[in-house]
Amino acid sequence: MEKLGHVLSTRQFTRTWLDRLFVLARKISEERRKPGGIMSGRIMATLFYEPSTRTRFSFEAAMISLGGQVLSSENAKEFSSAIKGETIEDTARVVGGMCDVLIIRHPETGATVRASSVSPVPVINAGDGDGEHPTQSLIDLYTILQERGTLEGLTVTMFGDLRYGRTVHSLARLLRLYWARMCFVSPQRLAFPRNLLAELHGSRADVVETTKLSDVLTDTDVLYVTRVQKERFSDLEEYAQVRGSYQIDATTLAQAKSDLVVMHPLPRVDEIAPTVDALPNAAYFRQAHNGVPIRMALLHRLFVRDPDTHSS
User: Fold this and answer.
1) 226 among known catalytic residues
2) Are 172 and 201 in contact (CB under 8 A)?
3) H/E segment holding residue 182
4) Cβ atoms of residues 156 and 220 within 8 Å
5) Residue 230 pLDDT > 90, yes or no?
6) Pair 133, 125: CB distance under 8 Å
7) 84 catalytic per annotation
8) Which residue has the higher pLDDT, 184 or 231?
9) Strand, helix or coil at 120?
10) Where do the domains of the chain lie?
11) How many other CB atoms are there within 10 angstroms of residue 162's CB atom?
């Protein structure tokens, strides 16, 4: 498997690359994250201009487990340099000179691409506005594989905020590589972006859109739920109108397949009732835990060529 440079978009990933990454992640998970020291002497810097818990912690846990060190920031927009008006490009130039890999989360779509254009080290997109979240989609796809045993030919329903939900934007692009049937369920004002829908249709993906979960639930193998993101709305009245539009509870799931997998990138607000947590269908906490082995595998691929798994 060839090493990557920057990790900015799911468009970079091929099916062969994904399959091999998942083999490595499973091996790492089975070995209980034995460090191996492959990142010994290397430093990761995390620049998070938006708050984060799972993404930041799992990246940092991955780096530490591989023997590396971390320079961490919880809220980079409060840095003196950002307050003074320093651009993301200049910050990447400066911080990139102090580390070996730069993890960036930013509220502006395309900010990580701009940073990567000048960074002296690899940049990983940890979420940019309502654009993409490529490493979350790796976790999501790996979780589906772990829960269902396959990625082939499944019906995956994405439910909730599909307009601003960067996790579903990234996941949809990867699911088409496995010929998944995708169902998009949301209020009209939170519908999946038209340009991305056209992209999926252009690749002959099997896509269904509806405002009613009941239209597709009985055929669904994986239900991917997202929260309505208050931080993406400039008009709070609009947010108030769509918040709580949908909720998944035990009554809802009674209409679904018994082996339905329920996922969520977290955090949740009120879109999944706590009563669902105890059901075997609830995979969202296992999904969150998969973040460490996946990001360990990704860092491994950034810096190490494995002679047993490299592509020709």
Assistant:
1) no
2) no
3) strand 181-185
4) yes
5) no
6) yes
7) yes
8) 184
9) coil
10) 33-129, 134-289
11) 24
Tokens at 80, concatenated: 């003196």
Average pLDDT, the chain: 88
Distance, CA of 202 to CA of 312 (rounded, Å): 29
Q: Residue 98 corresponds to which tokens in the numbers above?
A: 């102090």
Name the percent of the chain in helix, strand, coil, to the closest 5: 45, 15, 40
Asked whether residue 305 carries a pLDDT value surpassing 80, the answer given is no
Nearest to 47 by CA among 117, 112, 105: 105
- Our answer to whether residue 230 is catalytic in this structure is no
- Is the pLDDT assigned to residue 12 strictly greater than 60? yes
Q: What is the pLDDT of residue 307?
A: 42
Per-residue pLDDT at 150: 95
Residue 36, token pair as written in the block: 């191996």
Across 160-180, average pLDDT: 92
Catalytic residue among 84, 194, 204, 212: 84
Q: Is 105 a catalytic residue?
A: yes
Out of 20, 106, 133, 295, which one is annotated catalytic? 133
Which residues make beta-bridge pairs with 144? none
Q: Dig out the tokens for 199 from the structure.
A: 């992209």
Q: Of residues 20, 42, 105, 169, which has the active-site annotation?
A: 105
> Euclidean distance between the first and final Cα of the chain, in Å?
8
Helix extents (H) in 41-189? 54-65, 80-83, 88-96, 111-116, 134-148, 166-175
Report pTM: 0.90
Q: What percentage of the chain has pLDDT greater than the value 90?
A: 70
Catalytic option among 10, 55, 143, 252? 55
Structure tokens at 302: 């950034």
Question: Residue 311: is its pLDDT beyond 60?
Answer: no
d(CA 157, CA 209): 10
Question: Hey, what CATH class is 134-289 in?
Answer: alpha beta
pLDDT at 237: 63
Fold of 33-129: Rossmann fold (3.40.50)
> What's the pLDDT tens digit per position in 36-75?
688 999 999 999 988 888 999 999 999 999 999 999 876 6
Within this chain, domains 33-129 and 134-289 share the same CATH topology: yes
